[in-house]
Amino acid sequence: MMRAKKSLGQNFLIDKKIITKIVSILELENKNILEIGPGTGNLTEGILSRNPEKVLVIEKDDNLALLLKKKFRDKIEVINKDILKINENLLSDKTLTVFGNLPYNISTEILCKWILNLKEKIWFDSLILMFQKEVADRIISSFNTKNYGRLTILANWRLDIKKICDISPLSFQPQPKIESSVLFFKPKKNFFSLKNSKNLEKITRIFFMHRRKMIKKPYFQLFNENISIASKIGIDLNSRPQNLDFETYFELTKEYENLRS
Question: Under CATH, which architecture does the 197-259 domain have?
């Protein structure tokens, strides 16, 4: 049996009931599928059982990539590369439905990369992704809660998100020390228009650098002590970063862009 590599954050999903639940979230017949981190191919088998048109898998581990090629032959296309070094907008001419048991050590990096690189034409129709439960809780949290932060704001800018289920460590081999969660993401039809997604990343990074402190200092840093913008948006500068909702951060980013245009 192929051994998981801790260095790559590998935990192979082996629970057939969970696999069935995940691949049943959407109708997959005749769809083009992308799977991230397929490991030994257990979820891949479940996906193939739903009769998709094409299945691409991205697997960084050379040994696992070879195993998958031998196991599935021409049923899938194996891309033996690092997902963080791939331009996802060039993966396929067709819109992809994405599944991923994401490596825990880079899961947030993957999601943020995808969000920040979104074009007008979005390369996926849905994301069905597995995270550490604590990371999933941050993604779906509400403002004025301890889990609310940069990841929450970035993810909810372009995506509608709902939680599918939590998964016990017993469903994996080797067993992780924490629970996991599956989240379902769908691109928003209507979203707050910004000139450059990197500006939202910058605003949230600076504000949440000291999340327990008042926002006055990061606000002044970004807006050169100009309090008129805070008054315009209705921001109390004695608030803390988690006290501002999504729309407020989007408005702040827009005002920041206007100052520099």
Answer: Orthogonal Bundle (1.10)
3-state helix, strand, coil in the chain (%, to 5): 45, 20, 35
Q: Decide if 174 contacts 3 (C-beta within 8 A).
A: no
**CATH code for residues 6-187:** 3.40.50.150
The DSSP result for 85-108, as a single string, is GS-GGGS-SS-EEEEEE--GGGHH
**pLDDT > 50? residue 22:** yes
Burial class (CB in 10 A: 0-12, 13-18, 19+), 204: buried
Interval 75-109: pLDDT, tens:
999 999 999 999 999 999 999 999 998 888 899 99
Amino acid in position 41: G
DSSP 176: P
| Confidence (pLDDT) at 10 | 57
How far apart CA 97 and CA 84 sit, in angstroms, is 18
3-class DSSP state for residue 71?
helix
User: In degrees, to the nearest 5, what angle opens at C-alpha 195 toward C-alphas 202 and 215?
Assistant: 35
Structural domain boundaries in the chain: 6-187, 197-259
Spell out where the chain has E strands: 12-13, 32-36, 54-58, 77-79, 96-101, 124-132, 159-167, 172-173, 180-187
Q: Whole-model pTM?
A: 0.92
For residue 159, what is the DSSP state? E
pLDDT digits (tens, 9 = 90+) for 121-140: 899 999 999 999 999 999 99
DSSP character for 123? S
**Predicted pLDDT at 109:** 95
Confidence of residue 120 (pLDDT cuts 50, 70, 90): confident
